[in-house]
Design goal:
Structural class: alpha+beta
Order of helices and strands: EHEHEEHHH
Radius of gyration: 16 Å
Distance between the termini: 50 Å
Length: 137
């Protein structure tokens, strides 16, 4: 079991910055691990999530976890964990949402022109068709 909260994520997930903003506003110490640069962490996330690389995945010191939590679920878990929860102000949330969207958009643009980003087996392929894909349709 970890001694601190661990947040597994990667840079192209738009939810990760929002979750981190809630944790930082609430002064919760955590360790962030990028599963794209850490194969052992990626394997651990797959074990936790039945073979899926779902992020963010939060692993708490008591062994419980949250996968792709809403901010409501995260705040409830933090309260259960005995933490004082502070909601990030609107400016912080807007900044984090825009940052997350930008990261997602960049990863989508790097999809080799397919117009979609392949996600894990629990999710469908998502994305907006590129001009080339639209012409083929």
């Amino acid at each position: 079991m970890p001694d601190t909260l661990i947040v597994f994520g990667h840079s192209s997930c738009p939810i990760v910055p929002v979750i981190r903003a809630v944790l930082e506003a609430s002064k919760v110490e955590y360790e962030y691990i990028d599963i794209r640069s850490n194969p052992a962490a990626r394997d651990q996330v797959k074990v936790i999530n039945d073979g899926c690389e779902s992020v963010p995945t939060l692993l708490f010191p008591d062994g419980t976890h949250l996968t792709e939590p809403s901010t409501i679920d995260l705040r409830a878990k933090l309260r259960e964990w005995g933490r004082t929860v502070v909601q990030p102000d609107r400016q912080q949330l807007l900044t984090m949402l825009l940052y997350g969207w930008t990261l997602w958009s960049r990863s989508r643009d790097a999809d080799n022109g397919t117009g979609s980003v392949q996600t894990d087996s629990r999710h469908s392929t998502v994305g907006i068709p590129t001009d080339a894909a639209a012409k083929e349709a």
